[in-house]
Amino acid sequence: MNTYPVNIVNEYLRHSNLKINRQGYSIADIFRDYWSDFLLNNPKLNIRPVVFDNVERMMKCKTPDLGYSFYSCPNCDNFMIVYNSCKSRFCNSCGVKYAKQRAVHTSNVLMDCAHRHITFTIPDSLRIYFRQDRSRLSILFEAVNQTLQYLSLKHGKSKRWKLGYVLVCHTFGRALNFNCHIHALVSEGVINKSGEFKSLTYFNFELLRKSFMKTLLDLLHKTLGHGFYKEKCALYASKENGFYVYGPSLDKKSQKGLIEYVLRYTGRPVMAESRIDDVDHVNRQITYTYEPHEDDLLPDEEKNGTITVTEDIDAFIKKLIVHIPEHQFKMIRYYGVYSSKGRKLIPNYKKKKSLKSLFPLKWKNLMLQTFKFDPLLCPCGATMKYEFESSHYP
């Protein structure tokens, strides 16, 4: 069996992963080609300022407009220019990196115990209130927070037992529709000020469903005023069992990858580019696929299977931009023991340096993990060095 030098294999992999040699059409490409036409075709569409900001940044991602870092080889005349990224959560490339970094950061905070993934959803009729005013998503966070606080109080008021939970807000479903809901990563245990830990393996979902419904409706009633009262009463009448709350228990084997899976899943961009099957430039249409949520709860023989959607590119763009969060709005929040103040209750907890824990997720290592080649390995075999003086940062 022939073995080739590392630098030759690296060059082969580097060339194989060049954009011209990779299959697919990115979301950034779609916006670069069609964003201007979209604005001309929809002059009356009320587009939020944050949408313009994020789209413009995404279209400039890894282009000369955002500047570049300069690397040169100490052994030969070879050099490399790496264009800067946009850091937008709407960008698929930057969003995936953000999700991985968030997973590492959150893993450093969590207690060494089992966790439960619980999803809190709301009826279709309530979604319009959160779409009209994105700041109301904080009400959704607070409703889940109060619900889980009530759950922890049921396990000993006198000793002030506390749960630890991380809440992540999603505004989209797999079909790209506006479907705001909360993913909660909840510790299967409570802790008090003395550092005593008590296991919590039973979650009363009847209590969670009804408590979540009451808390959310009361908060919305307080915000929207008396005009919401009639709808509130109608929901109480039609939702006798409360709003849908789902969180199955997992065995020890499934627990191992739960934290990483949940955090990367909940922090991901709106749509994975691998779901795009085709872009028809002649008819201005895009074809993409998704797996319906309904299949998650059905046996294999009853699943609907992959659904394929072909629609106008303007409609596709409209679906994507509606999910861009407001500037500085926190879509991931920490509560209970996992809040910044509550972490001191965790025995032996030490604040870890974020830069050190995130070092494996720097640009070079992410390229190595994803595309299997070292971007700084020169064809001559030496490692390229960064030169600040030759780099450009607008």
UniProtKB/TrEMBL annotation:
Pfam family, one: Zn_Tnp_IS91
Domain Transposase IS801/IS1294 residue range list: 164-340
One GO MF term attached to the UniProt entry: transposase activity
Domain Transposase zinc-binding, chain residue ranges per copy: 30-122
Any GO BP: DNA transposition
Protein name: Transposase
Native species: Peloplasma aerotolerans
